[in-house]
Amino acid sequence: MKWFENIPCKDRRSTSRRGGWNVCGLLLLFLLQAPIPSLAQADEEYLLEVGGGIGAVSYLGDFNGSLTGNMQPMATALLRRVLNPYMDVTATLSYGQLKGSYKQANTFYPDYQGQTYSFSNPLIDLSLRYEYNFWPYGTGRDYRGAKRLTPFVFGGLGGTYTHTTGTVLATNLLLGAGVKYKAAKRLNVALEWGIHFTTSDKLDGAEDPYYIKSTGAFKNKDCYSALQLTLTYSFLAKCRTCHNEDK
Question: Do 71 and 48 form a contact (C-beta atoms < 8 A)?
Answer without folding.
Answer: no
